Every structure is written in structure tokens, then in C-alpha cells.
């Protein structure tokens, strides 16, 4: 299936209508907290969790460790070896898995109500009694290595890896959460066991649950699932860092007919006072799909790209504004010129009053559209907790977006969108 | 969204709703006097709707020499009418807090808007308007054709695996229009004209060749008057029947090898010509769904267990089959070797496993488990507003009825071990297959700096 737009919009993390749901705080007997949205319209329960920490804490020589652990927690735990564990998941159609980001280690669970006892118990086992048997360890290592090989064929992944290397040189964020061929080969079972003990700690846990479950039952389940984990433990320090992607164009030569580029600038952390102003400005600049200036100039007027987009990328200790474009090699320099020009124009003038109003209408009006599934809402509940947005965030979000004034937007644009600082990492054979 | 034939969505994986209630999605359906089918799926959880129009036309309906016109027209449908200026369609949707997009497959073309429930009338008016009132200018046409050529470079030409996939389909299908890539061959895209686009539009875009699907916070009672108001007045057209050349007997197994200097990770895949619900021995379609699950549907499937877990030869192994298509379709088997395992060894192991399946079949218990899994997976479909709209739209646009979709769990339940064995025997014939090998090109000189990115901290070459 071919779509008209590969990436419709940039980072639209939050999409939930304030009016449609009620978020409840549930606290278990032992003090474990979860945010819950009850929804009994289907016999389904979705749980998303995150442990602060994550791949940024991987040792440099073993980068990819958190990701490898994530891939192994559902490959055998407690009394079940890998195949037995997977067989239960398949027979009960339970979706269970883990994922390591730079700043957090995430898990998800989705089950039919009739299988909830099994589902929560498997989640407990995966977190508290992972086996790390030799066969799955080597199998998953092989998959990760194959994934890294494939990644080296993918211009987007190549550019992204290089962009982080140069934007965060000397900092943990420079390393890919997926590691390297060498670092993944260096990971030992003892490393995995040690990380599971160090990472899966209750005082770093946030939980979001949506679906067919009562607060009372959830409170009991929280103790049952997470009660066996250590209550607290030390966490390494990741220093705050100003992203410093070098200005100009770096080229990774590749024999492709089209040059793909990531471009970016230092951005904002999620708690920056200018967050919403920047969010609105980015929508107008490159986040708004066919409503964005970049799409208008690069795609609609000139046919230079199928997709051109920009988005805010916040981290716990830094932030980026990142965009991407892909243009046939000989015309690529024109895309670069136009992107710089649009950054320059936005930095100089900010959005127009009409653009600002349209952006707010969209960002508020489209908020409910991604509330498409229990898992999506549960993920939102987790993100709200990770970002410390408050349990009433859904009721306040629209007002925060509406409050962005033209002056706020201009200030954020001036602060952030320096066209001469733009850093491009291109993969291909671009014309000079 | 990936450019694979007949859509990345598999009926089995997507189907929703437990058999606890009568059907799967429980849609309301009716037909307007001009022949336009309407499907309404109520889901009141959130005050939003998904409004979709599916046309029963896709890349397989293109005339020879005009590959890519179905997809290019899909892009051009955003270029305006007398009422909506060029480029404004999506902006109007966004200004009303909505999102819109469109997609093209071999058998269908779809357009959708996701909006707050109170904006349904607005998007319906706009969608109905462009069903007959499209206006195209030469400049917009040329620019959009350039966009599509860039899209092709992004999806296919920059991606050796996608290039191989395209070659494999062209090699598998001897006569079916599915042999053409949906996005089109590059030289043919570049030669498409404004006239081609308008001719295709006038030939195929009509209410009697379209399906309206509305899912979300609506009922048939609220949708019907709106549908009659905006779509009902559009005159029926003399749309031609979908003439599809079908496959002659396949007599020779095919192999396609792509060696490309850009490849770092080799892979192996095979397409078998397979019946669908629309083409060939349709009675095999449901047994083939069960077979795909057993052969390569997950971590306990035969191929995964044998190649990936037991023998440690593959990093990944899978099978995929989507029964929803107008003509005969494909059953895909694929594997990625672990480092150091050559593709011929991997292929031998896969052949052994397929031969074992043909010889010994599956136990009754294996089949019951697979069936139970598939049926239970349907229970998740109602969790998402879009699943029912996608599944029913795809089915109807491909000639599969609502009743067939709604009875999917029972049809899976009715599959017998004998039917699975018969489907496997009919399917796994070397003569009706193509095997594709994706390999690095040892002769290619890697461009400098390509293989190893510099370690963190070192300045990148070429920064200026």
C-alpha cells in the first residue's frame, strides 16, 4: 500500500480528549502507583510501564545492553523456557514486550480480560525472574546483529546514527541504543543479569493502565506484579548536555539515486517554558504535514521531495529539533537551500497570526484522534508521568496551547531556529 | 506504510471482536440509489469519526504502459476542484482539527479523514465534491509527478530489498497485472500525462464503483441522510468491469538474485503463487491462513522453531499470506541468515522443513491451537476505531462481502487438518514460485567512509 504522506506529522505525543476520559491514581498497599483509565467497552486490558534509566546508561563498550535485555525478558522466565513462554503468549493471544530508549526502559502488556491472570503473571516473571538461557541469548544476539547490518543499508538509520554521534559527541546520547556490531558481541549473560537487577527498580517505575479493570483489582495486581522488585537502587548520573550538531553539511557517501538528509539544531527539554511556543512554531514550520511551510516550499511548489518534516525531540537531559528530507541527488542542494531559507524566515518573522491560530486549532482539535486504542492511551499515561506533566494534564493541555501568543512564538523561533547553525547529515551522492 | 502488494494489513491479524457477539465488527450496511455501498461501524468511546471512501480500482486496473497512474491520480486528488483550491483540501481538514491521507494498492484506492464527529458533514461534502469535480492544471500535474518519482526513489530505488521484491513479483506473475509495481516503473511514471490521469479518473471514479465507510461516534441513522445528501446525488457512471488477466499454468521455477554494493545483510525469500478469496481456488484461502500461521506466524511456528531456535541458522524466519485480493495472490516465506550462514545452506534447511510439512502435515493439536489463536486475535479488533474500517473497506473493495468478513471466526474454526494438508500440497510447488536472493556485491567498491562511522567525538569528514 502506498500512502500519500509517509510522516504526516511530527511529534504529536499527546492525543487524548480531556473530556472523554478520567485518569485515576491507583496506589497499591505497598505504595506502587499507577494511573488508570477505566474502559469496559471491550474485554481488553492494556498496561504500559517505564523505568527511568535506559540505554544512555549502557557502558560504552557494551552499548546495546539495555536493548538486548529488553529483547530477552520475554524469552524465558521463571519455570518457562523461551519456547514455553512464547507458546503461552501465543495461545492466550497476549501481547507482551519490552523496549529500551535512551532515557527509559519500557514494557507493554495487552490481554483479553479472560486471560488476565496469566498475562500479569508472565509480566511479573519477565521482570523478576528472567532466565537469559544460552540459546535465546545467542539467538537474540544474532537478531540484533542482523538488525544492525540491515540498519547500515538504511539511509535514514545511517544518518540518524551519525547525527547523534556528532550532536552529542562525548556524551552518552552519542551512542545508539542499538549499540554496534562490536559492542553487541561483547555483551555477556552476567551483564544482562546485572542490568536486570539494577534497572528494574520500583522507585523508577511508572505505570499506565487502560481498560477492563477496576482500581481495586489493579491495586492488587500492582503488588503482585511489581512487589518482588527491589524498592530502590542507585542510578548512574547522566549529565545534562547542550546538543551541539556542527553547522554545515556532512555527507556519508552512498551509491543511491536520492540523497536523504537529517537536519537539526539544539532543541528543548520537555519542561522548558518555551515548549508549547516551540511546539506550535514547529507545526507551522515543518510539523504540520501539508499545512507546513517546508512541505509547501519543498514538495508542493517544486516537487523536490515526497516527505519533508521537522519535529521536536526532547530528552531527559537535552533536546533537539530534527527534520528530514530526501531529494534526487542533482536537485538535493536546492532542498537544502529552501530548508535553510524557511528556518531563516521563521526565525526572523515567526508565524503569521493566521498560521498561529490554525496551528492551535489543529493541535487542540486533533488531540482525540490518536486515542485509538487502549494501548495508545496507556502509553500516554506513562509519558505524562515520565515528563511529570501532572495527572490533570489532559484538562490543562488545550489551555497551554491556546495561551501561546504571537510574541511567545516569535521568541521561541528567534531562540531556536538559527539557519546558519543548521546541521545536515546526508546519505547519498548529492551534487555540490 | 510499506509498498507491498494488496496492503500491509492482514485480515487475520486485524480482524476484531470476539465471537461473544454475533459478528466481528457488526456493521450496518446500505446502498444508495446510485449504487454506492455504505458501511457504518459504531464505536462511541470517543467523539471522533473516520470517514473513508474506497474506490474499486487500483494499480492492477491500469492499461499496459501506464503503470503508476492509479497512484499518481491518488496524489492528484488533492489538487482541487472549483470549490476547493489546489493544495487546500488537507489544509482545510487540518484547520478543522482533522488528519487526512490516502493510499493505493493493486486492487483499491482509498481516501480518509479522521475528524471530530461534528466535522463529518464537512469532510463528506469535500470528499463527494472531488469524486466528480477534480480540476487539474499542467503545472500541478508535473510537480506532483516529480513528487511521486521522489517517493519511488525513497521507497524503492534507495532500497535494494525493495528493488528485489519488485523483480520477484515481476518474475512470479506471468500474466497477472500484479506483476507491475503499484508505484509504477520509473520510465512509465515519468511519461504519464495529465490526460492519462483524467482519463483514469473519469473511467473509474464513480459512486457505483465506491464504498463509503464511516466508523466511530455515529450510527447508520445519522450517516444515511448525510450520505444521501452528498453522495446520493452523484450520477452513476458506466464503469467498466474489472478485467483481470489471470495466470496461465506455471511450469518453471524461477530464481532472482540481486547483488548490490549497498547490501550489508543478505536475505532469502520466496513467493508462491496462491489463491485468494477473489482468484483461483478460493476454498483454500482459509486453510492457507491457518497454514501461514503454522509455518511462520510467530515464535513457535515451524520455520522459526526449526531454523531460528533449534538449528541456529537464521536470525528470522516468517510466512505471510493475505487472502483478500481480486486475483491470485502470493504466499511469502522469508528468512534472514545468522552471521556466517550462507543462503544456500539456509535454503536447504527451509526446503527440508517444507518437505516435512508436506510429508507429515501438522498434528490436530497444532491446528486447533492455531485456529484458536487466530479466532482470539479477532477480539482485539474493536479496540481500535480504524481496524474495522480498514478491514471492511479492503474486503469490499476487493470483492469480498461483509458477510464473509463477519463470519471470519467461524470460517477459520471450520478449517480441517485435511484442508490444511490439501492447501499445502497445492501451494508448495517449485514450478509456481520465485526465490529471491539479496546479496552484497563483492565487486562493488565501497565508497569511502561508508562501512564504519567514526567513533563519537571525532569530527565528521566533509563538514564545511
UniProtKB/TrEMBL annotation, chain A:
One of its GO terms (molecular function) is metal ion binding. Residues 187-362 form the Peptidase M16 C-terminal domain. Gene3D superfamilies: Metalloenzyme, LuxS/M16 peptidase-like. InterPro entries: Metalloenz_LuxS/M16, MPP/UQCRC_Complex, Peptidase_M16_C. It holds the Pfam family Peptidase_M16_C. The keyword Signal applies. It comes from the Bacteria. Residues 1-20 form the signal peptide. Keywords: Signal. This is Zn-dependent peptidase. It comes from Paramagnetospirillum caucaseum. The lineage of its organism: Bacteria, Pseudomonadati, Pseudomonadota, Alphaproteobacteria, Rhodospirillales.
UniProtKB/TrEMBL annotation, chain B:
InterPro entries: Metalloenz_LuxS/M16, MPP/UQCRC_Complex, Pept_M16_N, Pept_M16_Zn_BS, Peptidase_M16_C. GO terms for molecular function: metal ion binding; metalloendopeptidase activity. Residues 443-458 have a biased composition (Pro residues). Its cofactor is Zn(2+). Residues 38-183 form the Peptidase M16 N-terminal domain. Residues 192-374 form the Peptidase M16 C-terminal domain. Keywords: Hydrolase, Metalloprotease, Protease, Signal. GO terms for biological process: proteolysis. Residues 437-464 are annotated as: Disordered. Residues 1-22 form the signal peptide. Belongs to the peptidase M16 family. This is Zn-dependent peptidase. It comes from Paramagnetospirillum caucaseum.
